[in-house]
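ok here's Peptide deformylase:
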Amino acid sequence: MTVQPVRLFGDPVLRTPAIEVVDFDKELRTLVRDLWDTMEAQGGAGLAAPQIGVGLRVFTYNCDGVAGHLVNPVWTAVGEAEQDGPEGCLSIPGLSWDCVRARDVVARGWNVHGEPVEVHGSDLLARAIQHETDHLDGVLFVDRLDEATRKRAMAEIRSAEWFTGTAPPIKQSPHPLFGTR
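and the structure:
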């Protein structure tokens, strides 16, 4: 089991769009294992590679009885129904706010062997797919909050015990790809 440190709000890697995976190799399989181990250890519903300092388009998920990973994911909403409910993030520990998301989505991507994968999600799984894909685009869920909630969220983040107010030092990733991103 290899649990990696989760990057916290303020770390530049969380605001940097990740690049597409082109090599479906042993390093990718190790990255997915590390994401899985870290997500499970932290009790998360999902975890994206940038959250452990790796700038690649990969995430893991485990919610609503459905678990897996997606490489180079894209998602589309199924219908126009929305959900408005609590959302949190391992990179913003201990805090959550209501966030509007599509209620039903279909995500397409690849597995670690380069085989196509399609995931249909509703409710929590749909929220996780959208949240983790946002991480791959350098977007945090606080960016999706309405103005008043976002203002309150930023105040709560600034007063959180874990928030230092300065950019954290760059940590070396154990993965050879973009180790300091």
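+1. Residues 12-159 form a domain with the Peptide Deformylase fold (CATH 3.90.45.10).
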